[in-house]
Amino acid sequence: MSIQNLIDNNIAWANNMVEEDPDYFKRLSQQQKPEYLWIGCSDSRVPANQVVGLAPGELFVHRNIANVVVHTDFNCMSVLQFAVEVLKVKHVIVCGHYGCGGVRAAMGENEVGLADAWLTNIRDVYFNNEQKLAELSEHDRVNRLCELNVITQVYNIAKTKVAQHAWDRGQPLSIHGWIYGLEDGLVKDLGVTQRSRQDLNKIYHLFATSADNRPDIPFSPVTY
Ligand SMILES: [Zn+2]
To answer: What is the model's pTM?
Structure first.
């Protein structure tokens, strides 16, 4: 399929949408009110909106290789902050998928490039669960690591200021861990939903500190 085909497809799609609902784009262009943030893998076989049957405007989406949530990733953190604090989404869904190439690469010894640094996060998940994973066949080991990776990212979101401050404000926010099956198209809930900071180890608890009562940290200018 040539790139022109994609443009043609777009024209056909836009015309079709207007035929079905003449105000469709006008309405959608004025505001978005999604209730869900989807954090998924960039894998082309896991199309977020189609998987959960939601229309444009109903799902805020962030995707990266192997659906990893890292606190120093400004991209992911900005999406999370905007989704929770501005759009006020009620649910964050981390959705991984079985047979994830990123997870598989993180288990291998071959260099893949820049993504190796990114996938170190998944090697850490493997390391923390090494004994249990070692008992499984190779196929099951990849798929179990796909699940454990999702679970880790759910907790990583719960550890953020954004999630904890939302809970402090009494804003309803649930963080879900799901996994998608490429072979059957079905999503499985991994049963690790976070609805408060209660299940989080105390070391990760963050409480808002107003500018007024922040500890006074002495400023020492750096001299060269
Ligand atoms: Zn993937």
So the answer is: 0.90
